[in-house]
């Protein structure tokens, strides 16, 4: 059993678990959060993100009317941290007030998204081009809410440790409660490898908590990142969409109880075949959540996108993706999943995250 405790308060003193889901466009929605949460140890509390939410649109949104702002009752009780894009104080003020009224327990600012749409509006990683401008975004958000405000960022626009240090210090002085660092440069997107030494560098130089993110595919990667960087938590993106039992496996290492949906004498999958079996159960359960929360037209497209991100870890994932691409409704999607997983399947530990 590994001895671990969060060294600095993240969100509040109740958060006790060292792993959380990443905010991912088209993926970190209520259906996936619900499915992944089944594998969280019963005595564990962590933070739960949303997809990126535009502060331009949020003031006009209605709760539970669109996939991005559909929150379950469990979401609203357990560490919901919506992520916003924004640079206008009036829009940010309206957005964070609405999010708090819906049950948000913290607000995360995106300074890491490298996609062109975000860059056109001077959102996402483009904010890292100007330290004072980025600082002002945090200040205006902090000024308009009493919720904790965090920032998710990349290593910057250039390979400059001094700039990165000045940047994160400015976020800290602006009132950020914690930061999450994905240590790739903006132009890398998902290419290359995450430089965990940068997480360690930032962690050593900030007083606020630091969450590490990047290249986590199996439970052992979580332990390695904590050991190598001393980060306060580890954030996992696409690997958690297909291997949610990482939460269970990490919980076992840290002495947490089993997830409530599994008996105390059960263990998480321990080999590639057991993982293939559990992956089938997970995806079928996730599809049931899609049926609850999303209308069929939207839900089928979103589930196909989920499989596009999940299938590379399956030995014959390309076959499942092809079968799923032909599904026109939930019933056909369920048949495709049941047919694929009726045969023994195997999962690999690592896949090329740069697909």
Question: What are the salient characteristics of this protein?
Answer:
355 residues; alpha/beta; 2 domains; eight-stranded parallel beta sheet; 13 helices
Order of helices and strands: EHEEHEHHEHEHEHEHHHHHH
Q: Can you tell me the number of structural domains? A: 2
Task: Provide mean pLDDT, rounded.
Answer: 90
Overall number of strands? 8
Strand line-up of the largest beta sheet: 1-8-7-6-5-4-3-2
* Name of the level-1 CATH class of the largest domain: Alpha Beta
CATH architecture of the largest domain: Alpha-Beta Barrel
Radius of gyration: 20 Å
Instruction: Return the CATH topology of the largest domain.
Output: TIM Barrel
Commentary on this structure:
It is a single chain. The protein is α/β, with parallel strands linked by helices and 355 residues long. The protein has two domains: 19-253, TIM Barrel, CATH 3.20.20.70; 272-341. Helices cover 41% and strands 13% of the residues. An eight-stranded parallel beta sheet has the order 1-8-7-6-5-4-3-2. β7, α7 (219-229) and β8 (233-236) form a beta-alpha-beta unit. The model is unreliable at 116-123 (pLDDT under 50).
Which helices and strands appear, and what pairs or packs with what?
Elements: E1 19-21, H1 30-37, E2 48-54, E3 80-85, H2 89-102, E4 107-111, H3 116-120, H4 131-143, E5 149-156, H5 161-174, E6 178-185, H6 196-205, E7 210-213, H7 219-229, E8 233-236, H8 239-242, H9 246-253, H10 272-293, H11 296-310, H12 317-325, H13 330-341
Helix pairs in contact: 1-10, 4-5, 5-6, 7-9, 10-11, 10-13, 11-12, 12-13
């Amino acid at each position: 059993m590994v001895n671990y405790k969060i060294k600095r308060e993240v969100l509040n003193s109740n958060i006790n678990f060292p792993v959380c889901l990443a905010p991912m466009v088209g993926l970190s929605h209520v259906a996936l959060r619900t499915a992944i949460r089944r594998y969280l140890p019963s005595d564990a509390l962590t933070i739960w993100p949303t997809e990126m939410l535009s502060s331009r649109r949020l003031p006009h949104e209605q709760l539970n009317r669109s996939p991005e702002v559909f929150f379950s009752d469990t979401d609203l009780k357990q560490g919901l941290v919506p992520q916003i894009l924004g640079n206008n104080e009036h829009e940010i003020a309206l957005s964070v007030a609405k999010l708090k009224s819906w049950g948000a327990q913290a607000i995360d600012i995106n300074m890491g998204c490298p996609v062109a749409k975000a860059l056109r509006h001077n959102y996402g990683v483009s904010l890292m081009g100007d330290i004072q401008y980025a600082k002002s975004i945090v200040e205006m958000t902090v000024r308009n809410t009493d919720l904790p405000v965090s920032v998710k960022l990349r290593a910057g626009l250039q390979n400059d440790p001094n700039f990165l240090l000045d940047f994160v210090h400015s976020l800290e002085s602006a009132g950020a409660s914690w930061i999450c660092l994905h240590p790739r440069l903006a132009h890398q997107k998902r290419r290359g490898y995450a430089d965990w030494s940068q997480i360690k560098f930032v962690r050593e130089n900030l007083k606020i908590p630091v969450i590490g993110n990047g290249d986590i595919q199996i439970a052992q990667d979580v332990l390695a990142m904590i050991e190598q960087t001393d980060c306060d938590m580890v954030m996992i993106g696409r690997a958690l969409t297909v291997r949610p039992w990482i939460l269970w496996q990490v919980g076992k290492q840290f002495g947490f109880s089993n997830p409530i949906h599994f008996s105390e004498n059960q263990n998480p999958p321990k080999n590639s075949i057991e993982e293939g079996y559990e992956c089938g159960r997970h995806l079928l359960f996730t599809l049931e959540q899609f049926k609850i929360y999303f209308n069929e037209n939207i839900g089928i497209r979103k589930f196909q996108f989920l499989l596009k991100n999940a299938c590379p870890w399956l030995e014959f994932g390309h076959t499942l993706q092809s079968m799923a691409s032909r599904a026109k409704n939930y019933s056909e999607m369920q048949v495709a999943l049941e047919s694929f997983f009726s045969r023994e399947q195997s999962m690999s530990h690592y896949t090329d995250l740069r697909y």
